[in-house]
Amino acid sequence: MEKAPIDLCWIFPEALAMALLSKAQSDRVDPVRILQTLLPVIGTVLGSRIGIELKKGYSVEDSHIEYPIFFTADICHPSTGSGTRGILLKPLQEMHNADRERVAEAFIQLERLKEAWKTLGKQEKAKKFDSDENPRNYEAKYCKPKKWLFDEATGQALTKRISEQEPKQGCLLVQNQLAGVFDSLDRFTRGKGGKKQFLLKAWNKPLGGSVERVDSKNASYSFKNQTLSLTGKIQPAVAKRIFNVASYPEGMLSRFLPAIASIPHNFAEMSTVKVNVYGPLKNLIEGLQRRPETLLVLPPPSSDIFWNHREDLRRGQDSNFDSNPAYSYFLEKQISYTARFAVVIHCLENMEATTLPTEVSAETMNKAIRLSHFYCSQFLLLQSKSGRC
Questions:
Q1: Which residue from 99, 75, 7 is spatially nearest to 256, judged by alpha carbons?
Q2: Is the pTM higher than 0.85?
Q3: What is the pLDDT of residue 231?
Q4: Less packed terminus of the chain by CB within 10 Å, N or C?
């Protein structure tokens, strides 16, 4: 089990890693805090457009496909590194702001269309009924704002807004304090556990199905394979209390990737490092947005590496089930997370490629496994006990 801090230069392309480290070094924060925000940000940009097929079935529905959905816990002392997380989230916020401007212009055009529609006769309206000249169609198509970032929205507002986003779009729920996610989820829908069940479902795969409403004030709505990732900060003492349990049967704990941020030895010193992260990160996100739908696959060498790792995880899951069920459940989720890590690393490694290669290399899979080992060690450190992985 790996105990050493994760090396961003080993996981990510060197140019990106150095850009990220310039921010960490300037802010005097542990680089792992960048990882805790970067993974869900990239997963949000990719949504369910990019997936990885681990086991092929007779149909897509029968196949085991994982998508880049991440729940991360940034375990840190309060009032440290807020600027670090902020700059990683900024490109998503700017995308949201730009879309608000687009929607404002669309509403102006909508008013023009409404006035023009009033002047049309019955036959003209019938001819243009299915076109964008029909204000109803135009409003539904162009006047709904896109939103990537969500914060402390109420439960029904969150699920409704996610359903309004484009098919396969990713969304990111950012929590200033994650403790509430574990301690008070049942308040989401008057004690009925609605938020808990929604988040459990959202982690598993892209969202589908519908939410039925019986009252006329709240119309029913459906999801269209949108994804939801989640990230937030949590204080070390609180994290220790939450993760240091023998069992957490409802499954929420096992879905989170915890990372304990240390305070650098030179925390109090003024940094002379010149930050260069915003431009590279913005270019990265814009490039990822342009990637079309792609299903990644594992060629024989990568497949062998993954399935051997899966066997190790399953053996660890079995050997810890009685003595440490919480860790056993966590190891089970690492099977999915290893594949999700591979999606992100593969996309980052091939940013310069005109088209995204579909085959994931053995080297990429080994990097994904190293990330999985890192998070396993972090989970055990929080538990202050040994386990077998």
A1: 75
A2: yes
A3: 95
A4: N
